[in-house]
Amino acid sequence: MANLDIVKPENLVYQKSKVLTDAVMHYCPGCGHGTAHRIIAEVIEELGIQDKTIGVSPVGCSVMAYNYFDVDFQEAAHGRAPAVATAIKRLNPDRYVFTYQGDGDLAAIGTAETIHACNRGENITMVFINNAIYGMTGGQMAPTTLLGMKTATTPYGRDQKLNGWPFQVTELLAQLPGTYYVTRQSVHTPANVRKAKAALKKAFENQKLQKGVSFVEIVSSCNSGWKMTPVQANKWMEENMFPQYPLGDIKVDGELVKK
After folding, report:
1. Which fold has domain 33-254?
2. Is the pTM of this model over 0.85?
3. What is the per-residue pLDDT across 186-236, written as a single tens digit (0 to 9) for each?
4. Domain spans in the chain, listed from the N-terminal domain onward
């Protein structure tokens, strides 16, 4: 007869990272922000840097990131996260500092801060969520909105003659001498989640090298802003976003990747 006093350890397949708080996330079902948060938290936990990490989030859907990560966090004005992160990292060079921004923030009102922080080669990690729309403020056109894409401010679709071209800010930043690692990933499938997590881990580890900015773009859907179901949004993203914003490494160890 089995000894009932012997308790076998549970064979855990997965558990929530201790770097995430118990706060219920406010993101819409199907949004990539929640998955991006999860893998960032897992990277911080696996690297053992929870007590040395400082995050910076500005205005937008990511504004409440401080509520979900159990690390030190600083709010920033709209678009100014790279400037705030610069000050934090220079004052605390032994800390792992990262920004978490959307396209309406990083590639619009924060363009100057983004470009100059990258050009200076600040030793920070920048996480850029690109869903090609202003998600929080009403679904307006963003710099990254695709041609022909309908938004609250382009109801007939983005017109190049009127609105200009979609802004491929990540390719632009890769040209700057201060960027050391630049990559574009997604989190819409398990395989892509694993690739994105590996990219984020590299981006955090690079801070020890003091070689400049590590920049990780994550192409994401905004099914509420796009007026689609999560499944439809992922399919639309694959068919329309990825041709404009192709996934993969753009710059590794300070060298542009040859295509």
Report:
1. Rossmann fold (3.40.50)
2. yes
3. 999 999 999 999 999 999 999 999 999 999 999 999 999 999 999 999 999
4. 33-254
